[in-house]
Design a protein that fits this description.
18 helices, mainly alpha, binds s-citryldethia Coenzyme A, 441 residues, globular, 48% helix, 7% strand, three-stranded antiparallel β-sheet
Amino acid sequence: MKSEMKEAGTITVNLDGETHDFPLYKGTDGPAVFDIRSLYKQTGAFTFDPGFTSTASCESKITYIDGEKGVLLYRGYPIDQLAEQSDFLEVAYLLLNGELPDRGERERFDTSITRHTMVHEQLKNFYSGFRRDAHPMAIMVGVVGALSAFYHDSTDINDPKQRLVAIHRMIAKMPTIAAMAYKYSIGQAFIFPRNDLDYTSNFMRMCFKVKAEDYEVNKVLSDALDKIFILHMDHEQNASTSTVRLAGSSGANPFACIAAGIASLWGPAHGGANEAALNMLEEIGTMDRIPEYIKRAKDKSDPFRLMGFGHRVYKNYDPRATVMRKACHEVLDALGVREEPLLQVAMELERIALEDEYFVDKKLYPNIDFYSGITLRALGFPTDMFTVLFALARTVGWIAQWSEMIEDPGQKIGRPRQIYTGPALRDYMPLHKRRLEPTDV
Ligand code: SDX
């Protein structure tokens, strides 16, 4: 990937009576960056930015977010247009290659993904090692991490051909692995993928078909899920994507990097929020209990947070939440469960939160996870599968960002530093000379 940052001036740092200049760069859009790669060499000082709230970790051409304006673009295309007009594999092609495919490119890509949806027969043995009540995300981390043990022929990251095979295998096998995790957790037989179904219909069938009877995919529902997958596909340098990049920067194989991303996504502050948001709505239960939870969310001494609200970047509405909310209503209408009590609670909670000055002042708006839980539950998925579905979709973003990093000529192993405030140098103290405890005498 060729750098396309444009010089936009310099900043001067005065330290210990010396001045140091650092270049300022601008990109296509969004905040400029100060290039401080030589800061330590020139000044002997580090920057300090826990949580990386003001740090750009890389140059990327894949996704652009404007948190103030509520903008999300995949390779320049607005997320709502892609969700409404495209489909999962076309958007996957776009994220991987930078352009929408022509007819031939699309057919070749679909064929390649379809031909990789099956998993090695012995991979099934991994599932039987888990308890049936294992959280499906625990299974995903384990099974995806083990893929490199089965696909040695696509782990050489310096071989572009092997990288392409690994990328297609990862995208193709995630639905199969995820569906198997679900089937295992409910004690049902695994269902093979079918080559005559589209990506998301195939996944729904592998989840909901039972061997004893045929299963007809409801196109309205699989289209809604396909849209939900598009919304979750990538999101710039979020925690799990940064985890994948950091793991990949050491040269780890792509399967291990994706397993690291799955582990990071699992956290309730990140991808685990959809499961946590639904659990929260179920705990609230009825609209009359909403004020009690709003009060708790504002109470600093109470660890409770309103799951599905707030975002590190979006300080206005999460544009995905807008599309997610619409998809939620479409699914509930299609299923005739419009009066779903949790939806009523969710809509009332959203209304109250958006009027409450605490949430307005702190710019805490519903994020993508707020409505996804209700929708996924209506589609028939259990709560503990919600983050698995998030991981299935985000695998495309993770592998596209990993690929961009590997192809970046400036790429090097990620190795942040720290500010040390521990004990100064001191000599070892033999036990008999240490501070005596009553029990030591
Ligand atoms: C995802 O990064 C990504 O792009 C993530 C993601 C993606 O696609 O990859 O978009 C997916 O992870 C969406 C976010 C899902 N998480 C949740 O819904 C969990 C609930 N939200 C919070 O945990 C929180 O809002 C975060 C983690 C999402 C954002 O945290 P920040 O930006 O670090 O903000 P913060 O924790 O510093 O909070 C700022 C203030 C604090 O109050 P003060 O200390 O300033 O007084 O807002 C408060 C927080 O206490 N606050 C909340 C709140 N979120 C923040 N108070 C109540 N409820 C909340 N949900």
